[in-house]
Design a protein that fits this description.
This protein is mainly alpha-helical. The protein has a single domain (about 5-155), classed as Four Helix Bundle (Hemerythrin (Met), subunit A). Helices cover about 60% and strands about 5% of the residues. The protein contains seven helices and two strands, in the order H-H-H-H-H-E-E-H-H. A two-stranded antiparallel sheet has the order 1-2. Helix 1 runs parallel beside helix 6 (about 140-170). The chain is globular and about 50 Å long. The relative contact order is 0.21.
Length: about 190
C-alpha cells in the first residue's frame, strides 16, 4: 500500500461526490442501509480513529509482543478485506447524514493530506508500538495505515451498490450512468 493508492481511492470519492445533489447523497436504498453520505461519514470517523492509532503506535513501544488475529493476518496478506458484506457494530445504526456535501469534501481532502504526514511519521519513528483493534488483535502504525486504506477500498463496493440504486431511481441521469460504467469491474 502506498499513499498513491490511498490518495486515489479518496480521490474517487471526491470526484464522484461532486456529481450528486445533496438529496441524492442522503437517499438510502432501504430503511436499514446507508446513504452515500452516511458511508462517507463512517469512513471519515473511522479513518480519524485509525489515524490516531497510527500516531499512538509511532510514539510508543508498548504491546510490541502482541499479535494480530488469524483473520487479520489473512486480510493483510491479501491486501484487502474479504469480499463480503461485513456487519459492523450496532452503533453503525446511528451514523448521521452529512450536514452538506462540502463537509464531506473538506474532510476527505483533510484525510488525503494527512496520509503524507503519517507516512513520514512512520518512516522517521524509532518506536514500534501496537494498539488493539476491537476485533482483529494488535496492529503497529504501518498496519493501521494499511488497514485504513483497505477499509476505504472495501466501501467502494457498497458505494457502487448505492449508486446502482440511485441510477435505477434517476433513469435520466447520464452522470450516474457514467459513474456506474467506471466501476463495472468492482
Amino acid at each position: 500500500m502506498g499513499n498513491m493508492d490511498f490518495s486515489t481511492t479518496i480521490g474517487t470519492w471526491l470526484t464522484d461526490l461532486q456529481l450528486y445533489t445533496f438529496e441524492q447523497i442522503c437517499r438510502k436504498p432501504s430503511k436499514n442501509s446507508w446513504s452515500l453520505g452516511q458511508v462517507g461519514m463512517h469512513l471519515i470517523k473511522e479513518t480519524d480513529y485509525f489515524f490516531e492509532q497510527v500516531r499512538t503506535c509511532a510514539g510508543t513501544d508498548d504491546n510490541q509482543d502482541k499479535a494480530k488475529s488469524m483473520d487479520a493476518v489473512i486480510m493483510f496478506r491479501n491486501g484487502q478485506f474479504p469480499d463480503e458484506m461485513i456487519e459492523g457494530p450496532s452503533s453503525n445504526q446511528n451514523t448521521p447524514q452529512p450536514a452538506n456535501i462540502e463537509l464531506l469534501v473538506s474532510d476527505f481532502k483533510r484525510l488525503r493530506k494527512e496520509i503524507e504526514t503519517l507516512e513520514s511519521l512512520i518512516f522517521k519513528t524509532t518506536h514500534d508500538g501496537k494498539t488493539k483493534h476491537p476485533g482483529l488483535g494488535h496492529f503497529n502504525a504501518n498496519e493501521w495505515l494499511q488497514f485504513a486504506e483497505m477499509h476505504f477500498r472495501h466501501h467502494l463496493r457498497q458505494k457502487k451498490r448505492i449508486e446502482d440504486f440511485l441510477a435505477s431511481n434517476y433513469q435520466n441521469s447520464t452522470t450516474i450512468t457514467k459513474i456506474l460504467r467506471k466501476y463495472t469491474n468492482l
